[in-house]
């Protein structure tokens, strides 16, 4: 009886184990010819590594095909410090086609210099099925995809409905009509956390093209790519919000377009979600050196659009009823030869700003910071700075083509500062008719409708002010006003201002309340004043010499500062 129980348990255990697959150790297979490579791929088990030990040219026009269900790594067994081995595609054909899972770690996928053909085509045989990104996976860890020239989509990689994971390596010097480096189409997915996509070229999307797909970038660099039409670095087309570029790190740098979108171009109800990273030094011959949004949506929570250039819209273009919501980051030091150094808003588009700055942009025409056509709109919320923008035309900070200014709504937390234009003018005498324009401060005068901050033209020059503060004493403040054509003040005496401090004597005016700025005495000339300023009275106790006393006390309305002067005698 006992023996029967033991035998029964043994048989049950054998039966249960039959349902679990046996763990097979992955093999490494060295190959140095096309015949060996094709045989190794066909016979590879899941997890096998195929190691190139020589350059291999594919004389057979068919691609190396990674079938559905396979999971293979292809690597290069070159000696340390030497160039990796190359897998060279047949003229006019892709080199590799991926239906299963392929990891590339260290090889070069290329074509001969005088031949054409794409690098890698991610699509299985038959009809595409399953959810997004489900038809094939390519993991690009290291190596190079270079020297591939395709006539249609994806010079380096053409991904249709598959998933591309790029954690390293370089995709460079490839070309095609759409997506010189990488094409992401038909609901495909692309995740880039590191690596380099550079020196590729195409009509659309010199570096990366996304058509009804998704590109998530968290690191790496897209640099030096070229587009004949749209999107030197990245170009996204879609419909029904089915094209997405999400950027949460990395750089898009020094890409060019002969038309629009030197760095990034988004079109066709697609989306650009910008969280972090840098878009810089990109150039477009016509519109949007940095980012162009055409009939699509921009959501910007951080990051920088900096030092880009275009004929119009140096940093950012919104057109064709696009929507932009920017709640963080900066648009700075961009340049337009004509309109909109920082932001250009056209054709029924809108921009909503909060917790960000538009700064140090320049324009040869109007609107160095922001340019709005008559049916474009600007709304600002909390903590917005429009500062240091300079134009050779009108509207240093903001220019609108709508004479009523009804398309501008700025909050009381909007800072205008250090903007300049071709000329400055006094604000309207009745500012109550512009209740939609609020502000925290202005570059000059008492309201941003002065042409330096927001375009405004009349025959009266604008003013700048110098405000005298009693700084702990009584009396004042007194506001002195001069024209921006003068830009200088003769410093007044405390009696002129009407300030006194019982028990203290007057020791001059200072540009900082704690005395750390520049000191002026009555009768001095403060010249080349850039904008509205304050000066603060400095006080010392009666009977003490403010220059040589043993103990000096300078008073301001925040604290007492004691300075000790020890006489060596």
Structural key phrases:
3 domains; mainly beta; 41% strand; 569 residues; single chain; 8-stranded parallel barrel; disordered C terminus; 13-stranded parallel beta sheet; disordered N terminus
Brief synopsis:
Helices cover 5% and strands 41% of the residues. It has 569 residues and is mainly beta. The chain has a 13-stranded parallel β-sheet.
Shape: elongated
Q: Show unreliable segments.
A: 1-23, 548-569
Strand order of the largest sheet: 4-7-9-11-14-18-22-25-28-32-36-40-44
The total strand number stands at 55
The domain tally reads 3
Q: Major sheet, described briefly?
A: 13 strands, parallel
Report on the architecture of this protein.
The protein is mainly beta. The protein has 3 domains: 27-258; 301-461; 463-564. The chain is 5% helix and 41% strand. Helix 2 (34-43) links the parallel strand 1 and strand 2 (49-52).
